[in-house]
User: What shape does this take?
Amino acid sequence: MCVLIVARATLLTNGEGDMACKKKHILIVDDDHINAQILESLLLEYGYQVSISLDGNSALDFLDNNNTDLILLDIMMPGMDGYEICKILKSRTHTKHIPVIFLTAKTKVENIIKGFEVGGVDYVSKPFHSEELIARVKTHIEIKMLRGLLPICASCKSIRNDEGYWQSVEEYFESHNVTEFSHTVCDKCAEKLYGEEKWFKLRKKK
Assistant: This one.
């Protein structure tokens, strides 16, 4: 039987509604319902949107109609195990780019290597440490973002976001990362903008 549990929605008020689309989504695939709920609670606490699939078929069905930024995938599951699920994900055009972190009690070298061979980007051993899990999740979501192809306007250099709207470079990266921009002018642009200014010529002589 295929079972899918979609995470509880969080109501945002006081102008925070715009932040909902900026949250990253994580799909948990684990047949252990209690373990999945523990993971869900932890990820929700850190501001992620979360969905849970209790088997491989429901996870694949979910991803046929929904996007996710990262998958936490248990290896030992009845029927289709985590390795097989990951192979399928990596064979499909619409899911092959999604980073998969394996959740496993199998810590032998050959098990870890097999996880990487089928397309996993990392693994977290069970029982997991909350800080380690969150750090790995954050890292691989950021790597995915940096590796992604960004549609950039050839004229004004705006970036088209996930919802299809155009944003400035600053707006885009501040909405996809915690980094804030500080503005300055490189030497080449400074020369172009202020090259004839007296104060600029004096500054160059120093």
Q: What stands out?
A: Residues 130-147 form the longest helix (18 residues). Helices lie at 33-45, 56-65, 82-91, 109-117, 130-147, 169-176, 187-194, 198-205. The two ends are 75 Å apart (CA to CA). Residues 1-21 have pLDDT under 50 and may be disordered.
